[in-house]
Amino acid sequence: MNTLRLGTTSLLRSFRSTPAKRTLATASSEPLVKTELYDLHVELGGDMVPFAGYELPVLYKAENGGVMKEHLWCRDEGKAAMFDVSHMGQIRWHGKDRAEFLEKIVVGDMKGLAPGSGCLSLVINADGGIIDDTVITNAGDHIYMVVNGATKFGDMKHFKEQMEAFGGDVTMEYLEDSMQLLAIQGPGAATAVAKILPDGFDLTNMAFMTGVDTILGGFEGCRITRCGYTGEDGFEIAMPAASTVSIATMLLEDPTVNPTGLGARDSLRLEAGLCLYGNDIDGNTTPVDGVLGWTMGGPKGRRRKEGGFLGAEHILTPDGKFKKSTKKRVGIMGMKAPAREHTEIYDATGEKLIGEITSGTYSPCLKRSIAMGYVETGMHKAGTEIMLKIRNKMQKAEVTKMPFVESRYYRVPE
After folding, report:
1. Sign of the C-alpha dihedral computed for residues 210, 125, 97 and 171 taken in this order
2. Virtual CA dihedral for 366, 368, 371, 375, nearest 10 degrees?
3. Hey, which of 18, 169, 279, 371 has its CA 20 to 30 A from 220?
4. Average of pLDDT values for 140-158?
């Protein structure tokens, strides 16, 4: 039996199994948006699919292409994967009250972010549910935010409503498609990116979740942030639309850099135990449900004590403790067949329904099926035996810790 072929088929089926959530292409007759790299994707053999209203490659039909090969390349020593993530929403926040306003709409400590520092945070609705997850960086004279492409217009509608209620000095600048965004991920990402950075740029002391404006490949008006969605070291680099093809081409001239599609991006993030908005978290999921309470800081932190963000009373007690949750997000392994989204989770007897799978795939690194989902609180501890109803047959599985594959985020040498 060809395991490679089986795994690739499983990965593609996983990615394409829920188009309503994963692609979120507009239901109207509006044409899909093409990023600045569309022609280059096609030239490189990109299999273009609708995603968040854009046309993006799910994989590349090339020597090092296909979901399996692209995935493994990203994890391989000395190599890096390049993703086009220009569908994501880039926003700049201006005004003297920008940090104060953002603390009304996200759970993180915006006032405490040092210049150049960033964090993952959550946008919360009035009921304590997650509207979106976002990376936010203090860029000095403004705050730089990146939100998910599938949710960006809904996010900005929400932001505008909250700005009207706030009344302070804050303005939102949506960069639209004037700025494009690439992600370079993998053990070789720093070496590859260093080749297009100005001489003397100190990547060694650039910590994870920090960012700075810079020149890339001689092009001004760019920004680099050390972050990513794969569990590997890596960067997201923003650049003016007119510079995108040139910068991407420079990166791809390095033989260690491989163009990589959405399919591998999805399997990489699941191995890393990272959530996909719309699948693993949504407006009905609180940070406590999703085991994302750490985005608010520790129990003695200011945000936990003060709250102050929309929906905080549904998440925190008056003394800053997490309110009890009826469900928890967990990792799941041990099943023989892949468990897809909406697969029912039962207790070990197979009689009591206790939850549901939200994401599942074949792990190219582990060579076995992995999944993420929610189970009743009390059934969430690692090692808990469970049953999954896959194709109307019960299969044994086990709750496990995440990430499934050890994360290798960058740490500055001591």
Report:
1. positive
2. -110
3. 169
4. 98
Q: pLDDT, tens digit, for every residue of 11-24?
A: 555 555 443 344 43
How many C-beta neighbours within 10 Å does residue 410 have?
Answer: 21
User: SS3 letters for 331-389?
Assistant: EEECCCCCCCCCCEEEECCCCCEEEEEEEEEEECCCCEEEEEEEEECCCCCCCCEEEEE
Helix, strand, or coil (residue 232): coil
Paired strand residues for 238: 181, 223
pLDDT(5) > 50: no
User: In degrees, to the nearest 5, what angle opens at C-alpha 145 toward C-alphas 274 and 261?
Assistant: 45
Residues in a beta bridge with 51: 54
Residue 333: strand pairing partners: 370, 398
Neighbour count for residue 212 (Cβ, 10 Å): 16
How many other C-beta atoms lie within 10 A of the C-beta of residue 6? 13
The phi, psi pair for 20, rounded to 5°, reads -60, -35
d(Cα 377, Cα 397) in Å, to the nearest integer? 17
pLDDT tens sequence across 249-297: 999 999 999 999 999 999 999 999 999 999 999 999 999 999 999 999 9
Distances (CA, A) of 243 to 100, 122, 207, 234, 309: 34, 31, 26, 20, 38
Mean pLDDT of the chain: 94
Largest CA distance in the chain: 64
Asked if residues 75 and 232 have their Cβ atoms less than 8 Å apart, the reply is yes
With beta carbons less than 8 A apart as the criterion, state whether 401 and 389 touch: no
Tell me which residue has tokens 């990965």: 11
* Cα 325 to Cα 329: distance, rounded to the nearest angstrom: 11
Classify strands 143-147 and 171-174 as parallel, antiparallel or unpaired: unpaired
Q: Mean per-residue pLDDT for 343-365?
A: 98
| C-alpha to C-alpha distance for 61 and 44, rounded to whole angstroms | 8
Contact between 183 and 85 under an 8 Å Cβ cutoff? The reply is yes
Residues 213-260: pLDDT tens digits?
Answer: 999 999 999 999 999 999 999 999 999 999 999 999 999 999 999 999
pLDDT digits (tens, 9 = 90+) for 95-106: 999 999 999 999
Residue type, 253: E
Higher pLDDT, 28 or 50: 50
Antiparallel, parallel or unpaired: β 211-216 and 33-34: unpaired
Cβ neighbour number for residue 313 with a 10 Å cutoff: 14
DSSP-derived pairing of the beta strands 353-363 and 344-347: antiparallel
